[in-house]
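Customer escalation, tier 2.

The customer says the design service returned an amino acid string that "doesn't look like it belongs to this structure." They asked us to rerun it and document both sides in this ticket. The original structure tokens are below, unchanged.
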């Protein structure tokens, strides 16, 4: 069983997909599965996925009609085998040691969910923006650990996290 299942919905992202996939296959933690759900792409995204899958056995590809990212993610959840699961949009990428650091935090704190900071890059302005500032209005996110009861009403508001499948 892999330690992490990365679920990657893919739809017409040929311009970004190589960087995204490179960020996954070059992670410092190797024991991952990368579940790519091609959501009816009409560009060369599927061919890019096939090329990567032929070179890396951790990559699984599922092709479906265009149903949207949410249904692609849900399908990925049904076939995921990892102890933890994380979603990545196919026009984004992870720092090379992000999964290792996040799994380490989950394991050392015995946490069900790990919340972490994220940056956004604006192609037009070429500026990077800290997405984590939205979390600052929730004091519980400033703590190192907290109970799910503390965040029940805000967990899906502007957060990025690693969650165990069990």
């Amino acid at each position: 069983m892999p330690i992490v299942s990365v679920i990657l919905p893919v739809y017409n992202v040929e311009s970004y997909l190589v960087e995204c996939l490179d960020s996954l296959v070059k992670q410092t933690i190797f024991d991952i599965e990368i579940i790519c759900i091609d959501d009816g792409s009409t560009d060369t995204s599927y061919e890019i996925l096939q090329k990567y899958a032929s070179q890396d056995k951790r990559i699984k590809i599922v092709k479906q009609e265009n149903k949207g990212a949410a249904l692609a993610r849900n399908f990925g959840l049904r076939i995921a085998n990892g102890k933890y699961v994380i979603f990545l949009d196919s026009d984004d990428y992870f720092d090379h040691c992000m999964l290792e650091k996040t799994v380490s935090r989950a394991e050392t704190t015995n946490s069900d969910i790990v919340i972490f900071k994220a940056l956004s890059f604006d192609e037009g302005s070429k500026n990077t923006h800290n997405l984590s500032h939205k979390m600052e209005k929730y004091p519980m996110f400033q703590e190192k650990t907290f109970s799910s009861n503390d965040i029940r009403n805000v967990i899906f508001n502007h957060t990025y996290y690693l969650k165990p499948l069990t």
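Tier 2 assessment: The sequence is consistent with the input. The domain at 4-115+155-164 is CATH 3.90.550.10 (Spore Coat Polysaccharide Biosynthesis Protein SpsA; Chain A). The first strand starts at residue 4 and ends at 10. Sent an explanation to the customer and offered a walkthrough call.
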